[in-house]
Amino acid sequence: MKDRGTHGAGPGGETARADNAAVEIETIRVWDPLLRLFHWLLAIAVVGAWGLGKFGPNVMTLHFWFGYAVLGLLAFRLIWGFVGPEHARFGNFRYGPVSIGKYVLHMVRREPSYWRGHNPLGGFFVFVLLGVLAVHAGLGLIADPEDYVNAGPLAREVSTTTSRTALAWHATLGWVVLGLVVLHVAAIGFYRKWKGEDLIRPMITGRKTVRKDP
Amino acid sequence: MRKVLLITAALATVPAAGIAADLQEVVDARRGFYSMLGADMSVLASMAKGDIEYDGAAAQTHADNLKLLTAYNMGHLYAPGTSNADMPGKTRALPKIWEDGAGVQEKSMAFVQAVEKLNEVAGLDRAELGGAVQRLGGACKECHDNYRARDF
Predict the structure, then answer these.
(1) What pTM was estimated for this model as a whole?
(2) What is the pLDDT of residues A12-34, one digit of tens each?
C-alpha cells in the first residue's frame, strides 16, 4: 500500500546539522490521506461545536450536529489507530515517561526534530486530546440543561442527577478543550518559529522531512 | 406589560424581620415553582417532538397553566440570603441574580413574551407549538446559562 511507506520516495542523502552532529534526512510520506482528512475535519467540527456552544443560537441543533461529527470522527480515529498505516497507529506513538522526558529535554534546541510521525510528547498529547474530546462529547449526549429543547439525546437514559453532573462537566471540559487547542496551535508555532520546522504543510501534503532510519 | 415576573421589584427589598420565612422553605418553594413550569413545559415539549401525540386541547391547558404562572409574583421566592453562595448544596441560584436586576428583568420579559406567544398558538397545531416551544426553551436557557450554576 502506497501510503504505508516510511521509506523511499524523498530525495535521499540530504544531511543537516542536528543533535550537534550531521544527520541524514529524507522527505517521505508520514501522514496518510485519511488521517489528514480526519485531522482537518476534526478541527472544523471541534471549532464549530465550540463556537456554537458558546455563541450559537439558544436552540442548539447545529451544536448537536457538530458534536455528533466529533464523535463519528473519533470512532474513525479509534479504528485507524489499530488498522491504519504505520504512523496512524497508536502503538507507533505510545512512548513511556522516560522517552517523553528525553524528548522534552532536547525539544528546546533551535533545530528541526525531523521526527517520523508523532514525537513522544506530541503522541502523548494526541492521546490526551482524543480522550478529552471523547469524554467531553460523550457527556454532551447525556447532559440536560432543563430547557426542554437542548437535552442530550441520551439524557433520558440516565438519572436527573447524572445528567446534571454531566452538564457541569461538559461545560468545564469545554474550557479544557479550548486550552488543549490553544496549546496545540502554540506548539505548532513554536516548531515553526523556534525550531524552524513547518508541521502544517506535512498535515496538508502528507510529506515531511525526517531523520533517516539508521 | 400586563404581566411581568415581579422578581426585581422584590430583590431590592429585604423582608421585614419576623415575617421572613425560613430560608430553606423559600428555596424549596422556589424550586417547586420551577418544577411546576417544568411539568407543563415537558408535556408541551414531548408533544412538539412527537414523543406523545399532539392534542390541541391538552396543549392549550398546559399553555394556560404556564401563562397563569407568569402572573405569580415570585419576588418573595428570591429573598436575600438564598443564593448558592449563601446556601451551598441547597440551590443553584447564582448571586448574580441579586446583582444584575436589569439583566434579570430583561430575560424575565423575554420569558413572559415567549409564554404568551406559546399560549396563542399551542392549540392550533403541532408545528406552531414546536416553534413556540423552541422559543420558550431558548428563554429558559438564557437564564440557566447566566443565573444558575450547572450543578450543586
Answers:
(1) 0.87
(2) 445 555 455 578 999 999 999 99
Return the pLDDT at B138: 97
Q: Are A206 and A31 in contact (CB under 8 A)?
A: yes
Q: What is the pLDDT of residue A181?
A: 98
For A12, A107, A197, B82, the CA distances from A101, given in Å and listed in that order, are 30, 10, 21, 50
Cα three-residue angle A130-A134-A138, rounded to 5 degrees? 170
Judged by a CB distance cut-off of 8 A, whether residue B55 touches chain A is: no
In chain B, where the domains are located: 7-147
Q: What is the pLDDT of residues B129-143, one digit of tens each?
A: 999 999 999 999 999
Query: Across the interface, do A147 and B42 touch by the CB < 8 Å criterion?
Result: no
Cα dihedral B93, B145, A74, A32 sign: negative
- Residue B138 to residue A147, Cβ atoms within 8 A: yes
Four-way CATH pick for B7-147: 2.30.42.10, 3.40.50.920, 1.20.950.20, 1.20.120.10:
1.20.120.10
Which DSSP helix (H) or strand (E) runs through B127?
helix B126-147
Give the domains, in start order, of chain A with CATH numbers: 14-211 (1.20.950.20)
Asked if A148's CB is within 8 angstroms of B42's CB, the reply is yes
Q: pLDDT for A43-85, tens place per residue?
A: 999 999 999 999 999 999 999 999 999 999 999 999 999 999 9
Q: For residue A86, give the nearest of A145, A35, A160, A22 by alpha carbon.
A: A35
